[in-house]
Amino acid sequence: MARNDIEDKLDQLRRIKSGGDLNSVKIDQIVILEVEIRFLRTFIKCNHVVSPDSLVKITKIAQLIMEKVHSVFDGIPDEYKNNHNLERGVFTLLESVQGNTNLRYNYELNDSDMWNIWIASIRT
């Protein structure tokens, strides 16, 4: 997911938070969700310095954020759900994390294969 897409989703959360008849609990949930999406965004940007084990944990965090989106939207008027397709945005964010994880593992696998080929060429 591009940086602009993430920023758009965060803007949508801000509009939902400020634009309706929400109680303080819902507003607090939205604030926490904003923080979690920013946290996830940071690791998407910096995935090249994150260990493979951490990428797996980040994917799990992204899945938890998806679940949180559903709980936050319970009780929010449908007009906000329809106008601000946040669930789709978080799903795209999750796909991005999983894609980065898969690319990272593929890169390591390819690097390992190259290493084995190089070792084999030295021995012959």
UniProtKB/TrEMBL annotation:
Protein name: Uncharacterized protein
Annotated source species: Solanum commersonii
